[in-house]
Amino acid sequence: MKSVYINSVGSISVQKTYESNNFLEEIVEYNDTVIPAQDPNYKDYIPPAAARRMAKGIKMGIVASKMALQDASLEQVDAIITGTGMGCLRDSEKFLSNILDNDEQYLTPTPFIQSTHNTVGGQIALELQCKGYNFTYVHGSNSFESCLIDAKLQLEQNEAQNILVGGVDEIGEHTVKLLKLVGQIKTEPVNSSELLLSNTKGVVFSEGANFFVFSNQQQASSYAEIVGVDIFNTLPIESVSNTAESFLKDHNLSVNDVDLVILGNNGDVRFDDFYNTLTSGIFKETQQAYYKHLSGEFHTASSFGFWLAANILKAQSLPKVVKLNDKNTSQFKNILLYNQFCGENHSFTLLRKC
Amino acid sequence: MSRGVAITGMGIISAIGNNVAENYQALISETKGISRISKIKTTHQNDIMVGEIAYTNQELETLLGLTPDNNYSRTAFLGAIAAKEAINDANISDINKYKTGLVSATSVGGMDMTEKYYYEYLDDATHRKYIAGHNAGDSSQKIAEQLGIEQSLVTTISTACSSAANAIMLGARLIKSGQLDRVVVGGSDCLSKFTINGFKTLMILSDTYNTPFDDNRKGLNLGEAAAFLVLESDAVVNSENKKVLAYVKGYGNANDAFHQTASSDNGDGATLAMEKALQVANFSSKDIDYINAHGTATGNNDLSEGRAIIRVFGENVPDFSSTKAYTGHTLAAAGAVEAVYSVLALQNNVIFPNLNFKTQMQEFSITPQLTFKEKPLQTVMSNSFGFGGNCSTVIFSKEA
User: Fold this and answer.
1) In terms of domains, do B260 and B196 share one?
2) Closest residue to B155, CB basis, from A119, A139, A179
3) Which pTM does this prediction carry?
4) Domain span including residue B213
5) CA angle at residue B130 from B127 to B135, to 5 degrees?
6) N or C end of chain B: which has fewer CB within 10 A?
7) What's the CATH number for A227-352?
8) How many domains does chain B have?
9) Catalytic residue (choose from B44, B161, B190, B259)
10) Which residue of chain A comes nearest to B253, CA vs CA?
């Protein structure tokens, strides 16, 4: 079985992560409940005529994937695997409101065509003329992790050598209204740096795209090795610690071998206890980090956490702004990521320095 | 990677029946499930025909024993019904005895409820419970809950009309690699105003019964369905002494990389998908006894698929037919619906006729199987193609 490496990264987020030399040195602070992603110069990546027809999610996906290809010095990959929790929300909303507002008359096909969940994956394939394997996973907060499992399987078995993998979600205006109505989005703005102190229900909602090239061939420029990924549809809070330990054990590690644990805390007072049980329990003495105060929350926000972990392992440094406690870890070998959303769709991901 | 992937159970609900037995009866008695739409109010009612499932949501709720405060979309209802049948068929009483996952597929997700209450949500709280059910993964979470699958791998694939074929493919790979001992795979999609109008704007909906591979084909009929298979490892089959219905022998996925919605004229992606599937099965093209074609009856698909079949099989194209004339095009569920039909074909050594065909296509000379045919079958190939250039092929066989 071959090892699997993260050979490149590309990120569009509410931070200026599209600047390749900016690893969270310059932070954009927010005080809001819904935060749109920072726009890169799309024209550098997509012809303006084509970009005009694309909703933001498609554009973010294409740009992040092109950044990842450039970072890996590749022009082609063997497969494209995309994760998206909500899919192409803007085109879905546009087509649906056209149906309802005009009583099913005067409709144009473009928003429908671009509303399907696999639009981003299909568009990237079209751009690259990539005729290889092309999957799109749409399973809530495990959409991106499903991609990881799939890609890892193929690379380990040498069914592919280079795979483009990414998570992307976009904000939809109407969806935001609905999510506010059901308390999924916070009603009171909260400052980024105080996200975990909000003590309120709901999340700060956002969007983004994080793409990577995974390979079974290590390069000098590789970021990290993907050691393991496990997903769980349900996980009672009492079982989180045990599951983390047995996941580590599956990879011949124990809690003490973890140099950094990166958690998906999003400041939703209803569900952050899933993380707190780890930070005040088995990982109490471990260096801890979080990132959703920088990325906001969306179904594929964990791909930002993955981007963060990959960068930490490559740079061997931990940006101050993500520290959840202070343990002055000097070396980063094993990083464990844990994420869940609303108590469902939990994931553990283990990355290692390579 | 030499392990077998056994199919030990199946479940289905479609316009031609509420379970596997009813579907088989309809297939062999050539009974179509295509009619005018009755459950969705649409201005296109008299312009289109659909494959609609008779049960109302309320009846499905009762069948599942759910209380009225549930927030199931029709996609989730249908999926739960079919997945439960598959588990019963596989004689599984303790689902968590083995490491069991679920890979489901959907394109519609909870859109049926969203489109009903989209604006009402804003000032009336009555139906807001459905807001959380919109995302595609929600139906899979509910199906997993219905099956009692806990703390395990549950995921959802959405690659338009190839989705369920891809769910079968991922499931087979998870079994082969030993990540799971057992996995329930399939898909569910209900009819919705959203998809009806979407396909309508693309002008690929027929105003009458769909006619796959006919020269005068006018487009597709949309359908709703859910279908699931239980896949188990050799180890589970042996230790439980399981009856094996068939095996997932090969699979291939490729992208046409031609157009966001249309297939390339020569079916590049479809050709690649079929070739890859043959390669994984370690078969040559002459090893395939029957092809259950995607055959949606759109001008574009049937031409592209037909040409791809000729490219792969040359002079020796095996018997092929599309069953879309029975069920309509059930979108993300189609690959699973047709997987069930492929296994039924293998089990009964029969080929289901390609209904409604009158005129030979001009572009090539291959003709689908037009009448019910009995013939010993060892292998069946099933094709599913979708928007975004997605092309998928799965091969089923009697032998591991």
Assistant:
1) no
2) A139
3) 0.98
4) 5-240
5) 155
6) N
7) 3.40.47.10
8) 2
9) B161
10) A133
